[in-house]
Amino acid sequence: MKRIHVNQHNIRANAKNDDNLPPLTIKTSTANHKGYDATIHGSSRVVYSPDKPLSCGAKVWIETHAPVVVQEEPICS
Fold first, then answer.
1. Would you say residue 75 has pLDDT above 80?
2. What is the model's pLDDT at position 73?
3. Burial letters for 52-70: b for 16+ Cβ neighbours within 10 Å, e otherwise?
4. Entry pTM
């Protein structure tokens, strides 16, 4: 199972400090991957769980068992 969510802290930091931190986090059973773009090669579902957020605090995320390709470098610098 992979869970993809938007990292609001990085988005705020990017706006405030003119940074370019990766806005996406892709969580797997073994690692967290940060990225700027993610392509899901298969089915997925969007989950909204305000009463049981992820450990990072995310209340909305995408779940998939399909392969996910993560672009770990910015598309435009």
1. no
2. 85
3. eeeeeebeebbbbeeebeb
4. 0.87
